[in-house]
Amino acid sequence: MFLHYLELAWRNTLAAKGLSALMVMALALGIGACMTTLTVYHVLSGDPIPAKSARLFNVQLDASDIVSWKAGEEPNFDLSRYDATALLRDKKALRQAMSSGFNTAVGLPDAQTKPIFSSVRMTSADFFAMFDAPWQYGGGWSAADDEGEARVAVISASLNEKLFGGGNSLGKEVIVRGQPLRIVGVLKPWKVQPHFWDLTLGSYTETEDFYLPFSTAMLLKMGHWGNMNCWAKGANGGTSLDLNASCSWIQYWVEFAKPEEAAAYRDYLVAYSEAQRKAGRYERPTNVRLRNVMDWLGAQKVLPADVRLQTWLAFGFLAVCVVNMVGLLLAKTLRRSGEIGVRRALGATRGDIFKQFVVEAGLLGLAGALLGLLFAQGGLWLVRQSPNDYAKLAELDASMLALTLGLALLASLLAGLLPAWRAALVTPAVQLKVQ
Fold it and tell me: What is the DSSP letter of 225?
């Protein structure tokens, strides 16, 4: 019976080509606008590490001075080197990593290969296991390498290709700031968006190309790029990276076996802060923050407010398109009252008429979905041309493709309910008399 309804729907659609095309176009515009903004929202609000996001926590301590303090405000964005080193030494979590970023040229000992300017992350040994880094060759360094200021490094697959033409480069040396470092690991292509472990360099920057022990970077005086907040005497000359400098610039993350362990770690942070206040290092009242990945991204407003607003506006536009489609379907139904009366007189039930018109709305919805998909692809292409740092991520994946089709069919079916119900109420005797 469904095939019969589908055949009738196809014939009636062709019989009113102009009106049908107008309905398909209205629905397609609404679907295209809605799926463009919804795809961007989906990409930007996604969980960057779903297997672990509930067990990874960012640490904030309020070590700044009292001069500009306001009750209830957020602590410093990052940690000072002294605090990060102390927390790392205490090892109160399953894993813990301190890190910061900078950029530098990476070359080869032969001096013939042109050095490549690369994004760099100086960090500690747990970083790779904590953030599920994928390995192509080798692995990360050990905690002993951190303590021994080992001259080792990990490089990305992209940098490995540029320097060595790909392949296994373990044990080879690279030159950074005139110093040789031995490669102990090569990562597979690794895309993590947003770049949650360090938002100071941009929420949607690419993962780094070069990694080395934090202690080694400090020994070699390799510098720092990104956010830095100094107070009191901490910003004098070139002392801002020193161990005892009053400057916060290091990102600190911890991993727990279970999310419930975060409460005990927070108590440890409170006790640590109180101890630092008694020692005279901290001036402000104790104010710690311990947030998991998604809470951290929410607190830092990584999802732009205009994207959320645009999504709501797009859904509003889709609602207007659906209302217009309802009106057009009602007009089309009234024009076919005579046909409906004849069908009823020949034995069709109200249920048969209702089903026929719902199938017809669904057929229009399918056509609107396909055209709306093209509009959505065009809208996403325009988004990718924008200067926003997240623009390159605007791609329609399989889940959003399925959602596009489902949303179009749902919208068309909802739009077809009232016209179908109105068609089912047509009285055959009145229509036959008129005819």
Answer: B
Cβ-based burial of 2 (10 A; exposed 0-12, middle 13-18, buried ≥19):
exposed
pLDDT in tens, 170-190: 999 999 988 999 999 999 999
Give me the chain's average pLDDT, please. Answer: 84
Contact 98, 251 (CB under 8 A): yes
**Residue 199 carries which side chain, given as an amino acid letter?**
L
- Does residue 268 have a pLDDT over 70? yes
Q: Can you tell me the distance from the alpha carbon of 298 to that of 52, in angstroms, rounded to the nearest whole number?
A: 17
User: Given a cut of 60, is residue 296 above it in pLDDT?
Assistant: yes
More confident site: 121 or 64:
121
Q: Quote the DSSP letter at residue 25.
A: H
Residue 325, number of CB atoms within 10 A of its CB: 26
Angle at 99 between CA 126 and CA 173, to 5 degrees: 75
- Residue 314, both tokens: 């797009």
Q: Which two tokens stand for residue 167?
A: 């392949």
- The whole-angstrom distance between residue 319's C-alpha and the CA centroid of its chain comes to 27
Q: How far apart are CA 110 and CA 114, in angstroms?
A: 10
Rounded alpha-carbon distances, angstroms, from residue 226 to 118, 245, 354: 15, 17, 63
Q: DSSP secondary structure string, 63-113?
A: -S-STT--TT----SSEEHHHHHHHHHH--SSEEEEEEEEEEEEE-TTS-S
Q: Please report, for the chain, the start and end positions of each structural domain, with discontinuous segments joined by +.
A: 2-45+304-434, 56-299
SS3 334: helix
Tell the residue number behind the tokens 């009232």, with chain if given: 418
Q: Strands 179-187, 135-138: parallel, antiparallel or unpaired by DSSP?
A: antiparallel
Q: How many residues make up the chain in this entry?
A: 435
Mean pLDDT for the stretch of residues 324-336: 74
CB atoms within 10 A of CB 238: 9
Quick check: helix, strand or coil at residue 237? coil
Distance (Å, whole) CA 94 – CA 161: 34
* Contact criterion met (CB below 8 Å) for 170 and 140: no
Which among 298, 295, 301, 290 is positioned nearest to 58, based on CA atoms?
A: 290
Residues 65-73 have a mean pLDDT of 79
The amino acid at residue 261 is E
* Residue 296 neighbours by CB under 8 Å, 6+ apart: 57, 58, 196
Amino acid at 234: G
